[in-house]
Design a protein that fits this description.
Blueprint (H helix, E strand, L loop, with lengths): L3 E2 L6 H6 L3 E9 L8 E6 L3 E4 L15 E3 L8 E6 L6 E6 L8 E10 L7 E5 L12 H21 L2
Parallel strand pairs: 1-6, 2-8
Antiparallel strand pairs: 2-4, 3-6, 3-9, 4-5, 7-8
């Protein structure tokens, strides 16, 4: 599956009720990284603490206290797009890796530090586009079909 972006928004209640393993990862970034919109590229460690039991062992982690992320670095890379943000927040990423992994959610705690945690890099986010109303692609298809139908109808009526 490769890189996963924080792009799907779910209700907290739906996330809390979801089955599957929840892993927790605490990272540090320099405070100036959080002043402007950016993307944090995080290569997640192979083993992560279980967020349900904080490493004590529960049904979500098969009583091990830890969850395993994919072997490959690319498969363990998560991209977090951030607007201005204060440190000390936690971001919950639904389905951060391929569906066959035991991790259904990844909770990333972001803290400030002198230097970034290993595996964490920053990429400046491109500027937000000027306001343009978003029209989903299916609306365009429907409008195209309607205009074609109207042209056919007009040509039949013109005879």
């Amino acid at each position: 599956m490769g890189k996963s972006e924080l792009g799907r928004v779910l209700s907290p209640e739906a996330l809390d009720a979801a089955e599957g393993g929840r892993a927790r990862l605490a990272i540090e970034v320099p405070g100036d990284w959080l002043t402007d919109p950016c993307e944090l590229i995080v290569v997640v460690p192979r083993r992560l603490a279980c967020a349900r039991c904080d490493g004590g062992g529960c049904d979500g982690c098969d009583r091990s206290g830890a969850l395993r992320a994919p072997e490959d670095d690319d498969a363990r890379t998560v991209c977090l797009r951030l607007d201005q943000l204060a440190a000390g927040v936690a971001i919950r990423v639904a389905t951060p890796f391929a569906p066959e992994t035991q991790i259904a959610q990844l909770i990333v705690e972001i803290r400030t530090g002198a230097r970034p945690s290993p595996g964490v890099t920053r990429r400046v986010a491109p500027p937000a586009p000027a306001y343009a109303p978003r029209v989903s692609s299916w609306v365009g298809v429907v409008l195209l079909a309607l205009s074609a139908a109207a042209a056919i109808l007009l040509s039949l009526l013109a005879r």
